Q: What sequence folds into this?
């Protein structure tokens, strides 16, 4: 394949060789958002199209709002790596991956410009319409790759996406600074917390022990839904926000 017509109107096309077929005839029903974590957008674009990298994404959104499509939405891009959500472990086969140009935490993490966010929202709306993506399946790389990835990070505005009709989100409950559960705790309250996180979709094991895995899961949740303090400690704000998100799922799960 030397080229293709973009799935997203007005997107530029730069073909990446790093793709394959979606497994078991799976169709994309999820969007996974990443940041590039590189010094420049041009460098990230080149890397995603370099066969030596063995990584790719369907789209790249530059800081100036330009959208580049590198893999057709019908194909399987290599963006999620080892990951899981709601028991699915081949996230690449059920998702559309979007890289957002940003240097990331290691290179001077910065806010995402409005022009870039506006372009991203338009792109996500198009993907949602084409593939009937449910709001709760618009996710961060950090949601599906627990403890391994932190992108797009706490400076990313999930609020802006939700206000435009993209993603599942509630305004975070106010903080009071009092810890309710923390690493080292054990018992029924920890088991309930783990069960709620797993019910939402996170790949956390239900053990009744607030272990390292639970802490990184709480951090991932906070990084998406309660960004003002990402510490892995469960306070009333974290717990209340999680309960309200579950209640807002289709069917009113709580």
A:
């Amino acid at each position: 394949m030397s080229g293709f017509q973009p799935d997203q109107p007005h997107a530029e096309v730069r073909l990446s060789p790093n793709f394959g077929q979606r497994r078991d005839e799976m169709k994309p029903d999820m969007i996974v958002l990443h940041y590039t974590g590189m010094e420049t957008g041009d460098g990230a674009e080149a890397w995603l199209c370099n066969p030596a990298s063995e990584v790719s994404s369907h789209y790249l959104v530059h800081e100036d709002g330009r959208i580049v499509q590198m893999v057709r939405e019908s194909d399987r891009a290599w963006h999620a790596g080892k990951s899981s959500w709601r028991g699915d472990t081949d996230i690449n086969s059920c998702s559309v991956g979007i890289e957002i140009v940003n240097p990331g935490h290691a290179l001077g993490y910065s806010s995402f410009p409005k022009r870039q966010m506006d372009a991203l929202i338009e792109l996500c709306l198009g993907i949602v319409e084409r593939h009937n993506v449910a709001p709760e399946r618009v996710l961060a790389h950090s949601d599906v790759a627990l403890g391994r990835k932190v992108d797009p990070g706490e400076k990313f505005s999930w609020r802006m996406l939700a206000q435009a009709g993209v993603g599942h989100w509630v305004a975070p409950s106010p903080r009071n600074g009092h810890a309710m559960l923390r690493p080292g705790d054990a018992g029924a309250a920890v088991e309930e917390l783990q069960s709620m996180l797993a019910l939402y979709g996170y790949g956390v094991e239900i053990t009744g022990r607030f272990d390292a895995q639970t802490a990184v899961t709480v951090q991932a949740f906070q990084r998406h839904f309660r960004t003002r303090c990402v510490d892995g400690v469960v306070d009333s704000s974290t717990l209340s926000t999680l309960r309200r998100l579950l209640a807002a799922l289709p069917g009113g799960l709580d």
Summary: The chain has seven helices and ten strands. The beta strands are 12-13, 19-20, 30-35, 59-61, 67-69, 76-77, 95-100, 138-140, 179-181, 234-235. The chain has a mean pLDDT of 96. The longest helix spans residues 114-131.
